[in-house]
């Protein structure tokens, strides 16, 4: 896996369950606490909708870079096909990507000003430092939560009585 995919990507896992989609929803509703509940009885918190869900491992530490498990399901003959996507929250990935894009734009504009208008070349030193800060922040956040992706997939497999889906 490339470093960028590890930092910002999500991994897809296909599962298959003998439960009906309605039974999957009921099981998930019973096993997921509201994201607003301070103290809950379940291991995960999130949202469950009729055809999709997203969950996070319950934690009392704020880490925006923790993985989120997004589940979608649909009936597939005798089984329910479940698609699991585990990765950084799309909001956090989007904000971080926009921040990096702004950094690249400002670096380009500053470089242009250094070479055309005579700005001090030392101004460019700030940009690699800012880039290293953002990449380091994301990497540390992902490392702190490194076991949560496996936990969430195991939790979903156990809760939905699911096994590997078709390749």
Q: Which descriptors apply to this entry?
A:
2 domains, single chain, 167 residues, 5 helices, 26% strand, TATA-Binding Protein, 7-stranded mixed beta sheet, 45% helix, alpha+beta
Protein described:
- The chain has 167 residues and is of the alpha+beta class.
- It has two domains: 10-88 and 146-164, Kinase associated domain 1, KA1 (TATA-Binding Protein), CATH 3.30.310; 92-137.
- It has five helices and seven strands.
- A hairpin with a 2-residue loop joins strand 5 and strand 6.
- The longest helix is centred in the middle third of the chain and has 27 residues, at 90-116.
Q: What about the largest sheet?
A: 7 strands, mixed
Please provide the ordered H/E string of secondary-structure elements.
HEHEEEEEHHHE
What's the CATH topology name of the largest domain?
Answer: TATA-Binding Protein
> What average pLDDT do the residues reach?
88
Major β-sheet strand ordering: 2-3-4-5-6-1-7
């Amino acid at each position: 896996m490339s470093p960028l995919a590890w930092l910002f990507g999500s991994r897809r896992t296909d599962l298959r369950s003998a439960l009906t989609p309605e039974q999957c929803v009921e099981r998930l509703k019973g096993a997921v606490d509201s994201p607003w509940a301070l103290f809950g009885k379940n291991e995960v918190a999130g949202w469950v909708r009729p055809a999709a869900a997203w969950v996070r491992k319950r934690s009392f530490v704020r880490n925006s870079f923790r993985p989120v498990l997004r589940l979608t399901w649909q009936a597939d003959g005798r089984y329910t096909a479940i698609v699991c996507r585990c990765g950084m929250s799309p909001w956090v990935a989007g904000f971080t990507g926009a921040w990096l894009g702004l950094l690249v734009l400002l670096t380009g504009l500053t470089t242009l000003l250094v070479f055309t208008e005579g700005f001090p070349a030392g101004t460019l030193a700030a940009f690699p430092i800012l880039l290293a800060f953002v990449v380091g922040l994301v990497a540390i956040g992902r490392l702190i939560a490194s076991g949560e992706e496996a936990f969430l997939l195991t939790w979903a497999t156990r809760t939905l009585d699911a096994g590997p889906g078709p390749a």
